[in-house]
């Protein structure tokens, strides 16, 4: 009966109690607190090591040692993983664990008595206290280091105005020895013109229980007076009763001199702005104009007050004000620069074209806008005249192209008629002349040359119209093979060998018609002007220039040409170096026109009798 009472008492104890029996340390009695600590895995007859991981290995090892040696052991604040419940997540808990060997009748150890007292809250408090102590020492050390290393003089003053503490910087700055009477020396080091004001303001702040912030001149160790900023705040230890003021002295001498220089510079800048014959203005971060130069008032005939915070918008042509206002609001919201061309009313009522620009600047005074309205009315009207003339010239040029194209097309039919009449005359008529064959040959050549000239004229106009073709990504090999397909008859007839190498720069963003015309003219010329003593060998290679821009090289082993002594020769239409070979002399001229019109340039290297190399820089004009 007594044993059952004892089991009931132990069963409901807040501390965990368990008995472990035999060398396997099998659970015997386990109360509720121990079951909760072990997650309900301690069932009677089960070894403490089963299931694995329920108890840490080091605790199991210690339990075996206590069992074998028979010596009790106590572990303070031992961590055990607490499995948790539905309302409490798993976490680590701390226990004071006691292991007592059990002997029956003074014999050998037959088991262990395990006690576990939950001390999690005490241990967490102890650890937190320890962490706070470490953090307090760390912060105290940091505060001391900061106080004694910052380029400021820190101090503490009591309610009577006596200095309780001053940092070492005071002695470095003033040159006073540490033995000097601080309360007596401090007022004497203040500039005589500032001393009375400083003493009064300090005493008034202490009397009112407020902090203070003011500037004065303090004598440095070299006898020079330097401007310093004194700031302090009260420390309250009783309700509404400050007992200390803690503050710092910061040297602001350079800043004051800089501020004075800035004020002088601002006055000079305003004088300069007023002297410029251009509308200059500044605006706040919200976009409201707060300054107009003198010329703005002279131009508009209004004062700065009359112009108001949005005056430059009110001066614009009424049809442009809404658009300008929307763009200005967008710039204010996004920070983007404002720029536009608008008509602005002068004091005589005449509207003149102005370029209005505004940029955002952020400095110590905050965000501001700086703007200017530049009169470009004369340039704008001149540009309109030039644009009209340009449009007229372009229209005339188009009409001329149309005329040339139409004329070349219309002349083809008379040429065909002339050739037919000449063939009929040669078939049906005869005359005795020793130079008959030579004359007939000359007539044929003249007709052929006329036909080629008309074809080249038409091709020239077509290429001229294609100079504005839109650019698109092009595969060089595909376009080159397309051109060679059209030249297949000439290639086969001349037994020409053509090598294509586009590995280093396989693509080009260009006008397709322009690229076809360039390749066609260069390849057809290389075939046409092949050397009579050897088959044509032509290499077409794309690569990158020294500036990493794409370029193309077309090299042949043909007859070559004589070039002038200039780095970049200019080819003229209808200029021919080999008149014995048919052609109108416009192919290279067209190539050069196409390349230069798109921002590139053409370089030519040639040796008579050896060959020619054309280097095309597509975009390196």
In short:
This protein is α+β, with helices and mostly antiparallel strands.
Describe the protein.
- With 621 residues, this protein is α+β, with helices and mostly antiparallel strands.
- It has 18 helices and 22 strands.
- The strands form five sheets. It has a five-stranded antiparallel beta sheet with strand order 2-1-5-4-3, sandwiched between helices. It has a five-stranded antiparallel beta sheet with strand order 7-6-10-9-8, sandwiched between helices. A five-stranded antiparallel beta sheet has the order 12-11-15-14-13, sandwiched between helices.
- The protein is flat.
- The termini are far apart.
- Keywords: Kinase, Phosphoprotein, Transferase.
- It catalyses: ATP + protein L-histidine = ADP + protein N-phospho-L-histidine.
- Its EC number is 2.7.13.3.
Task: Describe the structure using short key phrases.
single chain; 621 residues; alpha+beta
Low-confidence segments: none
Strand fraction band? Answer: 25-35%
Computed Rg = 51 Å
Quantity of strands, as a count: 22
Strand order of the largest sheet: 2-1-5-4-3
Structural class: alpha+beta
Termini distance?
Answer: 113 Å
- Tell me, rounded to a whole number, the average pLDDT: 79
Q: Shape, please?
A: flat
Count of DSSP H/I helices = 18
Bin the helical content. 40-55%
Largest sheet: 5 strands, antiparallel
């Amino acid at each position: 009966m007594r044993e059952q009472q004892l089991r009931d008492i132990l069963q409901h104890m807040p501390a965990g109690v368990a008995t472990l029996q035999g060398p396997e340390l099998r659970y015997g009695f386990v109360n509720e607190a121990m079951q909760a600590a072990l997650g309900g895995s301690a069932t009677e007859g089960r070894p403490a090591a089963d299931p694995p991981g329920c108890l840490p290995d080091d605790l199991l090892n210690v339990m075996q040692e206590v069992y074998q040696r028979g010596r009790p052991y106590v572990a303070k604040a031992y961590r055990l993983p607490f499995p948790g419940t539905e309302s409490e997540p798993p976490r680590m808990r701390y226990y004071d664990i006691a292991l007592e060997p059990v002997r029956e009748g003074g014999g050998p150890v037959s088991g262990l008595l395990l006690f576990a007292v939950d001390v999690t809250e005490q241990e967490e408090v102890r650890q937190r206290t320890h962490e706070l102590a470490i953090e307090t020492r760390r912060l105290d050390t940091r505060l001391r280091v900061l106080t004694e290393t910052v380029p400021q003089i820190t101090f503490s003053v009591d309610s009577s105005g006596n200095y309780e503490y001053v940092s070492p910087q005071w002695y470095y700055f003033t040159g006073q020895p540490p033995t000097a009477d601080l309360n007596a020396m401090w007022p004497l080091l203040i500039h005589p013109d500032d001393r009375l004001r400083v003493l009064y303001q300090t005493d008034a702040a202490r009397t009112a229980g407020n902090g203070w912030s003011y500037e004065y001149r303090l004598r440095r160790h070299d006898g020079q007076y330097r401007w310093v900023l004194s700031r302090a705040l009260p420390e309250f230890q009783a309700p509404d009763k400050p007992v200390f003021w803690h503050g710092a002295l910061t040297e602001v001498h350079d800043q004051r001199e800089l501020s004075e220089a800035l004020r002088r510079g601002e006055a000079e800048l305003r004088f300069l702005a007023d002297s410029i014959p251009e509308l200059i203005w500044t605006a706040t971060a919200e976009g409201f104009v707060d300054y107009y130069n003198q010329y703005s008032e002279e131009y508009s005939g209004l004062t700065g007050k009359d112009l108001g915070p949005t005056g430059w918008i009110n001066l614009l042509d009424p049809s442009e004000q809404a658009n300008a206002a929307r763009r200005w609001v967008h710039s204010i919201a996004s920070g983007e620069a404002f720029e536009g061309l608008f008509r602005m009313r002068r004091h005589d009522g005449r509207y003149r074209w102005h370029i209005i620009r505004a940029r955002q600047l952020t400095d110590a005074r905050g965000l501001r806008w700086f703007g200017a309205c530049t009169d470009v009315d004369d340039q704008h009207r001149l540009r309109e005249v030039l644009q009209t003339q340009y449009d007229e010239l372009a229209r005339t040029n188009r009409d001329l192209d149309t005329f040339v194209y139409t004329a070349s097309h219309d002349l083809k039919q008379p040429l065909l008629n002339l050739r037919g009449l000449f063939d009929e005359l040669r078939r049906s008529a005869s005359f005795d002349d020793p130079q008959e064959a030579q004359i007939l040959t000359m007539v044929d050549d003249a007709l052929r040359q006329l036909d080629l000239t008309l074809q080249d004229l038409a091709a020239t106009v077509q290429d001229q119209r294609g100079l504005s073709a839109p650019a698109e990504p092009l595969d060089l090999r595909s376009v080159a093979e397309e051109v060679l397909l059209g030249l297949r008859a000439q290639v086969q007839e001349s037994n020409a060998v053509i090598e294509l190498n586009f590995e280093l720069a396989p693509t080009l963003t260009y006008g397709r018609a322009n690229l076809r015309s360039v390749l066609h003219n260069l390849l057809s010329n290389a075939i046409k002007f092949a050397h009579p003593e050897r088959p044509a060998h032509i290499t077409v290679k794309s690569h990158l220039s020294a500036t990493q821009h794409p370029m193309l090289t077309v090299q042949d082993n043909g007859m070559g040409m004589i070039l002038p002594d200039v780095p970049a020769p200019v080819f003229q239409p209808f200029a021919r170096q080999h008149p014995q070979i048919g052609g109108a002399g416009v192919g290279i001229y067209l190539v050069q026109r196409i390349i230069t019109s798109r921002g590139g340039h053409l370089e030519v290297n040639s040796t008579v009798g050896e060959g020619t190399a054309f280097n095309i820089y597509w975009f390196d004009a």
